[in-house]
Amino acid sequence: xxxxxxxxxxGRRRVRATRCARTTSSTSCSYPWLIRNxxxxxxxxxxxxxxxxxxxxxxxxxxxxxxxxxxxSQEYVHVPVMLDxxxxxxxxxxxxxxxxLTLGGAGHASAILSANPERRLIGLDQDEVAVGVAxxxxxxxxxxxxxxxxxxxxxxxxxxxxxVAEGGVAAALFDLGVxxxxxxxxxxxxxxxxxxxLDMRMNSATGVTAAQFIDAASEEELSQLFFxxxxxxxxxxxxxxxxxxxxxxxxxxxxDLVTQVIPIPARRRGHPARRVFQALRxxxxxxxxxxxxxxxxxxxxxxxxxxxxxxxxxxxxxxxxKDHLLYGSTGGCVCPPALPCVCGAIPTLxxxxxxxxxxxTQEISRNPRSESVRLRIAERLLPSEExxxx
Length: 390
Prior knowledge:
Elements: H1 11-28, E1 39-42, E2 45-48, H2 70-75, H3 83-91, E3 97-100, H4 107-115, E4 121-125, H5 128-138, E5 145-149, H6 155-161, E6 169-175, H7 180-184, H8 210-216, H9 219-228, H10 235-245, H11 251-261, H12 274-284, H13 287-301, E7 302-312, H14 315-330, E8 349-351, H15 361-366, E9 374-380
Parallel strand pairs: 3-4, 3-6, 4-5, 6-7
Antiparallel strand pairs: 1-2, 7-9, 8-9
Helix pairs in contact: 3-4, 9-10, 10-11, 13-14
C-alpha cells in the first residue's frame, strides 16, 4: 500500500504523518469502495492518498485511460451512491441493454459494465463536462458504452437511434439531483458555499441562468416557487427582498441576502439558503417538469423482468417517482384494496421494496451527500402477470 506524504515533512513529523495517512487508507479497506484519490490534511499539510479502495466492480474502470484526460478525470470525482444496491438490482435482469439516464462522471456506469461483461450501456447526460469525462472513463469498454449529450427526457429518441424497441431494455437508472463536481465548481453557480456566477444550468449552452430567472420573475412567482420547495414561513419575505435588491450576479450575493432575511432562531440545520438554491436549480433546469414523462418512457422500454432504479435527493423528486411507480404497480386502480378490481386497471410494475431505501450509516460516513438519497426500484411484470386484480 503506497501512501503519499508531503516532502516538506521530515523526521518525527514525517513518521507521524505517514502513520496517520496509513491509518486513513487502511480504514477505508473496511468499506466496499471509497472516493477516488481523496485529499487528506496531515499536520496542516494537504496530501493525497495514492492508494484507493474502489468497489470491486469498478476498481480499474474509474482510472483514466488517456493521458490527455487525466486532469479532468481526476477533478471530476463521481462517488456512486448505493452502488451495491444498484448492481444487485441489475444483476437479476434480462441480458439486454442498460440505460444510465444521468451518467455524470460514469461512476455507476463503469461499475455496471465491469460487473456485466456481456451487456452494453447507453448513457445520457445534459452536462457537456460530464459527457466528456464519461467518454474518457468508459473508452476502455469500446462499443459496449454509447454516450449521448442529451437530457433524460430524450430517452425515447435515443432508444430509436440505438435501435432499441419497447420491451428491449434490461434496466433504466436515474441518479437525480446535482453532482458533487457541479456543487464544488464555483463557476457553475450551484453552491451557496463557493462564490461564482449565478448560473445553475446543467447544460450551460442553453436556457436561462438563475440570475436571469430572478430578474424576470414576479414577486408572486418567486414566492410560490420557494413555498413549494419548503420555505413555507419565509417564502414571501425572501421573494420581496429579491425583487427589491435585484439584479444578482453571484451566488454569494444571493446566499447573503437569504441569510439576512431568515431570522437566526428560525434557521434550520444547514445553510439558510439551501432550499432557495434548490428551488432555483429545479426551476432553471425544469427538473420536475421532465421527470414524470421520462419515468413513463423508461418504463415502456423495459423488458419483462427489467427494472427501473431511481435515486432521489429531495421530496419533490421522490414524490413524482413514488406516484409514477405506484401507478404502474396498480394500473391506476381506484377500487378498494380488499375487493376485486372492477375498473379494468392492469398493473405493469411490481414494487421491489416497501417505501424508499436509504443509504447505510457506513456509506453516509464516507460520503455525507448520500444522506438524503431515497432509492426506489420497480420491476416490469411478465405478460402473464399483467392482468386485472382478482
